[in-house]
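Suppose a colleague, Dr. K., hands you the sequence of a protein chain of 134 amino acids and asks what its three-dimensional shape might be. Before reaching for any lab equipment, you can write down a predicted structure in token form. Begin with the sequence itself:
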Amino acid sequence: MYNQKVLEAFAHPQNVGEIENPDGEGTVGNATCGDIMKITLRIVDEKIVDAKFQTFGCAAAIATSSTATQMVIGMTVDEALKLTNARVVEELEGLPPQKIHCSVLAEEAIKKAIEDYRAKQQNKTIDKSKIEYV
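The predicted structure, expressed as tokens, is then:
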């Protein structure tokens, strides 16, 4: 059912865990299959310097989470927003048709984490004690 690359990503996933006080966090789920993915990002100067995932799901869900986090590390936020589920599937050298939804979850979790990051950036308050009035 799964190719060797997917089995390897499942058996030895990279970036498992959660970043403490992440710059961006995205959690998505699929009620149909029960997969839940949480991706946390550390972003410095609009560049993703670390990504971690916690996934409850099948082998494809874990493999796509691991692969997507590996792919976005080193990308700018704008580059990561362009990551598609098709690109994740390509990196894994394919998924069974009934498991493609897992790659969609990985794409959505990355995008949701970036949305969270951008919302946090907009909500940063200005330290009024440092404003100079002329």
